[in-house]
Amino acid sequence: MISIENLAVEFSAHPLFHDVSFVINDRDRIALVGKNGAGKSTMLKILCGQQKPTSGTVAIPNDTTNRARALLLLEANGIIKLKEGVGLDATALDIQENPLNVEVVEMEAAQIAGVRDSVALAVINGNYALNAGLNAGTDALATEDPNSVSAQTYANVLVVKEGNENTEKTQALLKALTSQEVKDYINETYSGAVVPIF
Fold this sequence. Notes:
Blueprint: E1 2-11, E2 14-24, H1 40-47, E3 56-61, H2 64-76, E4 81-82, E5 95-97, E6 102-107, H3 109-115, E7 121-122, H4 126-131, H5 136-139, H6 149-153, H7 168-177, H8 180-190
Parallel strand pairs: 3-6, 3-7
Antiparallel strand pairs: 1-2, 4-5
């Protein structure tokens, strides 16, 4: 399903379209019809993620960790620009530039997948995306770079009691968890919603 809510696009301060909202359900067949210059190609480019809209609402998680990660993801994709150096402490107050004039709305992370049809963009945590039947490999317009500070900082790690770091059992577990077999399992099972960074 594709959902667009309050989409706007301008070229050189001249509106091409404004407050466009629609839903395309699975198995719907649609046609974009109009005169040259009406915005048909632009609309298709936006739907395919090749062009960004001029304005819209973006839903992001409201908890400290995921809020910052969402804002960094938006920045990495050219939606906003954050103040220099805010990193993982970023809040909406740190948005320095907003070239697309998006409205950032914070909400409980678990609710975002359910409201994705009523916003232009939704930044959804992988676990909630999976629960909503979404596939990061095919449904996401963008995902965190596995080498980003967010992905590296919030990766799952193996922790053992001090003094057990080099035991045979710990080393065997570490080897198993970071094996190509486990990496392949994660990639095949979670289709990008969970990303191995080892």
